[in-house]
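Support request, please re-run this one:
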Amino acid sequence: MDEARMSQRELSQRSGIAHETISKILNGKYPLSHKLFVKIADGLNVPISELMEDAITPITVDVQGYVEYDNQIIKIKSLRQLQKLVHQIEHETSILPREVKEIKVQNEMNRKLIKNSIKNNDYEFYINDFELIQSHDATKVDCWAFKAASDSKDGIILNLGNQCSGYPFQLNGHVFFTSESAYLCGQFSNNTEEHKRIQYQLMSEKNGYTAKKRVKNANKETIRADWDSFRVDWMLYVIWMKCQNKDFAEKLKSLPPSAVIIENSTTVHEGTSSIWGCKNVELEEARKKVERYTYLQYMKKVRSGKIKMNSQELDALIQSERDKIQYIGTYSDGKNYMGKILKICQLALLNNTKPRINYDLLRSKRIYLLGELLTF
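Re-run finished. Output below.
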C-alpha cells in the first residue's frame, strides 16, 4: 500500500474487502486466509507470492547450551551467539592458517630484500628535525621498533623504552632506576619544596610505569607551565646520561648503523603517542594473527597429549613468533621523538662524539634537580 500510495479505503474498494476488515488485518487482529490474500493481491495488482513473502513471520529459535572450544566451556544464550562462534571456528581452522602462511612468506621475502640492499651506513632517517612526520616502510627499510621490554629483533632484546628498568644511571650525582623517572623530574623542576618532594618520589621509583601513573598523575596540577618548550632537549639530555650506563650504551651500539629506530605506539592511545612514536596498524594486525595461530597450534598439541601445558613456555613461543614478523606495513602517523633521540645517541656512541644538545636552552629554563640548579 505504501509503495502504491494507496489508502485503506482505496484498497477496500479495489479488493472488495470491507474497510474495517482491512484495518484489522493491518493491525494483526484478523486472520488471513488464502481467499483474502488473493483479493488483496488483486487490489494491489501484485503477485500473491510477493504478499506471502511479507506475511511470513520469522520463527524465534530458543538456543541454549554449552560448547567447548579453545580449551574453554562457552555458554550459548542465543542463535546469534552460536552463529558468531561457528563463524570464528571456521575462520580459525580454515582461513587463519592460510593467512599466517602468507604473512610469514611475505615477511621473509621482505627481510631478505632489505638485508641484501642496505649499506652499513645508509639509512632513511632525518633525526635532526623533531617536528618532521615521516613514514618508514618496513618492507623496504630496516626498522627497529620497540614497545614492551620483551620485544626483540635478530636476537637483540629491544628494552629501549623509558619505562624499562635494568639500566640505572646517574644524573647530577643522583641515581635513577629508569629514564622515565628522570625525564618526569623535568616537569617538576621549579625551585620549590613541593617540586623537590615530587622529584624525590620519582627518583625512588624503580618502575617507570608506576612513576608515571602514581607520582606524575597525582601531581599534574603542578607541572611547569613552560614544560613543552624544553621537554625534547631535556629528554635528549636524560637519554645521553643514561648512555653512561655501559650496558645501555652497548645495547644501542649493537643495533646496525642502518637501523631506523622507532617507538611503536600503535596500541597506545594517549595524546602524546603520535609525538614520541609511530604507528604500524598493518604490522600489528599481522602479528595478532600469528599470535593467535601459534596459540591454537600449541593448544592442539596439549589436547592431543603430545606436550603438557606450560604457560611460560607458551608465552615465550608466542613472543618468539611475534618478534619474527618485522617487515610488514608502514610506520606513520607520528613524529617519533624517542626513536630520533635514541638514534642521535647511538650515532654519537658509534662515532665517539657527543650529541648536539641545546644546553643554552636548558640553562635558560633554570632547571632544579632535588634543590640544586643544573648548570650542565
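The first strand starts at residue 65 and ends at 69. The chain is about 50% helix and 10% strand.
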